[in-house]
TrEMBL record:
PROSITE patterns: COF_1, COF_2. This is Pyridoxal phosphatase. GO terms for cellular component: cytosol. SUPFAM superfamilies: HAD-like. It comes from the Bacteria. Pfam families: Hydrolase_3. CDD domains: HAD_Pase. One of its GO terms (molecular function) is magnesium ion binding. It comes from Haemophilus paracuniculus.
Length: 272
């Protein structure tokens, strides 16, 4: 098999538990690039939260963001393709979640926002503060989601989180699937985007733009929101410890994100 590209999920996959990229992973990615392979990041993150890693890796390719809601070009600060929530959809999800006491964050065109802090965003803000200023993600508190929506600001996704998983599950089950695409991005977090969005669908569009057959792509992922991507490509690889549903669609399962698993897999597949 002649591979042409590698697609990486970030959290739980390319990133360690300390939100860093292993040096050996960087080295192998550079070797793959030297052989002519394209490297794509396919993530649930907002593009401003991708930038620190994008710059570390020296990439120049578009990024699939917010679980396939949009395709972003860093060089030109341009959205190449996107399917955001409508103002009505965003308002509906936000109001329903807040009425049930579920924490809400909203990912607008250029920022990740919250009205009040929860433990997840406290941890996120500590990471943001640790990033160099020139690549620091845009995460901040705002007084009102609704005021921003009424200004016409693009809404990529609504992120809901709660330690009561049963409450979360019930909320997700009530969402009309002809309007929304909910994806569990972590054990206690769900990304809610417009119906039809997925990592696999937007990666397929990106590959078409790049004239790359999905069968010639290696992809790494670890969570439910990676299933569409892993099933799309020729070599879908699940990280060790990922859910059974993820491993079942993958061609192989490797070690954890804290080990040299990705580097070893790429060395073998690409004969590096």
């Amino acid at each position: 098999m002649t591979y042409q590209a590698i697609a990486f999920d970030l959290d739980g996959t390319l990133l360690t538990s300390q939100a860093t990229i292993l040096e050996v992973s960087k080295q192998v990615i550079q070797q793959a690039q030297a052989k002519g392979l394209k490297v794509f990041l396919v993530t649930g993150r907002h593009h401003t939260a991708v930038r620190p890693y994008y710059m570390q890796l020296g990439l120049d390719t578009p990024v699939v963001c917010c679980n396939g809601t949009y395709l972003y070009d860093f060089k030109n600060d341009e959205v190449l393709a996107g399917n955001p929530l409508s103002a009505e959809q965003a308002t509906s999800v936000i109001s329903q979640a807040q009425a049930e006491g579920i924490h809400v964050a909203v990912y607008f065109r250029d920022a990740m926002t919250y009205e009040w802090l929860n433990p997840h965003f406290e941890k996120l803000q500590k990471w943001v503060a640790s990033c160099p200023e020139n690549v620091r993600p845009n995460v901040h508190q705002i007084p009102s989601f609704q005021a921003e929506i009424e200004r016409g600001t693009t809404v990529w996704k609504v992120l809901i989180s709660d330690p009561d998983l049963q409450k979360m599950q019930k909320f997700v089950e009530k969402l009309p699937l002809d309007q929304f695409s909910p994806e569990w991005s972590w054990v206690d977090r769900v990304d809610i985007t417009r119906q039809g969005n997925s990592k696999g669908a937007m990666l397929a569009e990106l590959l078409q733009r790049e004239n790359i057959d999905p069968q010639n792509v290696i992809a790494f992922g670890d969570n439910f929101n990676d299933i569409s991507m892993l099933s799309l490509v020729g070599m879908g690889i699940a990280m060790g410890g990922s859910e059974n549903e993820v491993q079942q669609v993958a061609k192989q399962t490797i070690g954890s994100n804290n080990e040299e698993s990705i580097a070893e897999a790429l060395k073998q597949l690409l004969a590096l």
